[in-house]
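R.M. (postdoc): so does anyone remember the format we settled on? I'll just put the structure tokens first.
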């Protein structure tokens, strides 16, 4: 099965998993598990925009580790830092074919070689990011971007 066919089969399964459930954490947990199981990625998970300081400027709010599958990871990521913080700041998907060439990459694991980070957007605001790491180089492309954005829009 091609990657596109795998995503096409997975998308309705994810839709039915999250349909009718409004709890974001529960949905993120199932989406992380479904993607991780399907593709055997190295690390698959979410960072949520920290909300402790509701009135604080965005620069002092951080990404906080959310539901994930894989090895333990960094707990907090500042705005604009690493691939995750960059995707949050730009409010767009970031594909990194070789993490060692990405200035400011945060290495939670030395085994990771490529990465994609997709923002989860609600009411025009980034509320979380989906971060996927691979031990291979050049794992992610426009097909992943397209389907992962579809998946993130349903959380
Ligand atoms: N590499 C990410 C940090 C998160 S971990 O890989 C799970 C980054 O640069 O944002």
């Amino acid at each position: 099965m091609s990657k596109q066919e795998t995503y096409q089969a997975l998308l309705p399964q994810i839709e039915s998993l999250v349909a009718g459930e409004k709890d974001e954490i529960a949905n993120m947990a199932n989406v992380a598990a479904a993607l991780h199981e399907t593709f055997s990625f190295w690390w698959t998970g979410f960072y949520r925009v920290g909300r402790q300081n509701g009135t604080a400027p965005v620069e002092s709010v951080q990404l906080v580790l959310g539901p994930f599958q894989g090895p333990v990871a960094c707990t907090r990521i500042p705005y604009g830092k690493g691939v995750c913080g960059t995707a949050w700041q730009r409010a767009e998907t970031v594909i990194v074919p070789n993490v060692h060439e990405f200035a400011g990459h945060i290495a939670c694991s030395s085994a990771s070689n490529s990465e994609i980070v997709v923002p989860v957007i609600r009411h025009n605001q980034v509320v979380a990011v989906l971060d996927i790491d691979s031990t291979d180089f050049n794992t992610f492309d426009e097909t992943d971007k397209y389907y992962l954005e579809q998946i993130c829009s349903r959380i």
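R.M.: ...and that's the designed sequence above, right after the tokens. Also worth knowing: Helices lie at 3-18, 24-39, 82-90, 142-152. DSSP finds four helices and six strands in the chain.
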